[in-house]
Amino acid sequence: QVQLVQSGAEVKKPGASVKVSCKASGYTFIDYDINWVRQATGQGLEWMGWVSPNSGATDYAQKFQGRVTMTRDTPLRTAYMELSGLRSEDTAVYYCAIQTGYNSAYFVKWGQGTLVTVSS
Amino acid sequence: DIVMTQSPDSLAVSLGERATINCRSSQSVLYSSTNKNYLAWYQQKPGQPPKLLIYWASTRDSGVPDRFSGSGSGTDFTLTISSLQTEDVAVYYCQQYYATPFTFGPGTKVDVK
Question: Could you tell me if A104 lies within 8 Å of chain B, comparing CB atoms?
Answer without folding.
Answer: yes
